[in-house]
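Dear colleague,

Thank you for sharing your sequence with our group. We've completed the structure prediction you requested, and as agreed, I am returning the results in plain text so they can be pasted directly into your records. Please verify that the sequence below matches your submission; if there's any discrepancy, let me know and we will rerun it promptly.
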Amino acid sequence: MKIGNENVMEHGVIGIGQHFSFNSGMDRIPRISEPPRNSHKNELISPLVIDRFTLGHTSLPEIFERRFMIKRVISVVAVVALTALGFAAPSKAASESDCGTGKLFCIGLVTDTGKVDDKSFNQSAWEGAKAAAKSNGGFAKYIETTDPKDYATNIGQFADKKYNVIIGVGFLMAEAMTKAAADYPKIKFIGVDQFQGAAVPNLTGLVFPEDKAGFLAGYLAGHLTKTGKTGAVLGTDLVPPVRYFGEGYRNGVAYAAKELKKKYPATKLIYHAPDNAFNDPAWGGTTAQQLLSQGYDVIFGAGGNTGNGALLRVAKKKGAYCIGVDSDQWGTLPEARPCLVTSAMKLIDKGVAAVVKTIVEGTDKGGNYFGKVGLAPLHDFSSKVPAAYQAKLKAITPKVLNGTVKTGVKL
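Please find the predicted structure tokens below.
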């Protein structure tokens, strides 16, 4: 669905009244016995054979009527059992028309420029919003931003409908989110990558130590490179998290080189111009090709679809490695698997869901919520990366994450 120039998508969650874990309480669900077995062949007897055994010479219409009644009874038993375990049979699917009425918990998400299915940043935030809506029996919807000047308008579409929570994705949206929080004090706002210098009661900044994830990715790259040349294709450095990723990566490579007692050229960081910085896969691919042609053999792509373009180009180069960003791109961008040794992850989805949980519980106070970072599994590369390198990476990871090993990035 489209509203003006923005693409809009809804995610309704049919009204489950309570979160339920399938690991508990299953013994309370009535069990339906198996059909009888043929004692000679130990085979299950088909339903029709059962009818013949149990109903004798009953007519076919009567057989089918009885089987239908059995199915109805089974269905009723199942509904009663699930209701007893905390499920509520929904009277209708969740709908935006119920937002603002107090009947439904509504979450609206405004993406940064780029698509919601960018395989990394926006998509991860949207996954978190959907998970939060599902766990609260609520409703989630997104609006894709095509131009930064539309940030305020897009936020306003949700605010005017009195959504409970509005999520703004990206550093560049910070000013619009701050103003909206002031204009709509009864609505809760979550700003992904928007550090809050002063606490605002209804605005929470979801922020991450990207320098640490970047450092770990660079540390691995420094061990994998054969030419000593490592590079990164990035979004704009006007966005601090992008710069933190890039500089952390560069410093991680240097740290590895020092451990290995090798001298590498400085890691080359190439940033996109501010305009369309996160949705330019063609530029990402061309830039990655330039690096490859100069002998760079480990390339980090960080910048939404722009970074994806770099990863996809590296995937065509035999023997080259690439590193993804934000989410585990092994799953979100499978075309990059030929080169994708790992991803520098920000657990945005889990962070979004966690902040929404504090809002639902009434424990949120605004300010900043610090999400977690780390490296994705090596997947198929676990058999290709030397065990000694993996052991070193495992050993240094907690030291970087707890700050014992400094990244050297100026924040």
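Summary note from our side: The chain has two domains: 2-15+95-207, 210-346+378-401.

Kind regards,
the structure core
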